[in-house]
Design brief:
Layout: H1 3-6, E1 10-14, E2 18-23, E3 26-31, E4 37-45, E5 48-55, E6 58-63, E7 66-69, H2 72-89
Antiparallel strand pairs: 1-2, 2-3, 3-4, 4-5, 5-6, 6-7
Length: about 90
Amino acid sequence: MSRLEDLNIRLMVEGPAVSIYVRDNCIAAVGGAHRNNQGSTGMMTDQGLAYLVWRDGQPYLAAKAGETPATQEQVKAIHRFSEDLKIALST
């Protein structure tokens, strides 16, 4: 079993420049010839794809439709997914 499978991360799209990885409602784009350029991790919400941003020390999920406060669970899920994906792609 691969590291991605061990961490419950799925490769959704693999393209020549960018690949898309998902776990639960977290999503990340990874680019570069050796898949070593991990972009921002986002989360699928009712408003579409949202990215974690910080305003005055508070976390928000920013989507095209606007920003909503992020819960601590959402912040933890995004950070955990980013770290797990980084580890899985490191070899």
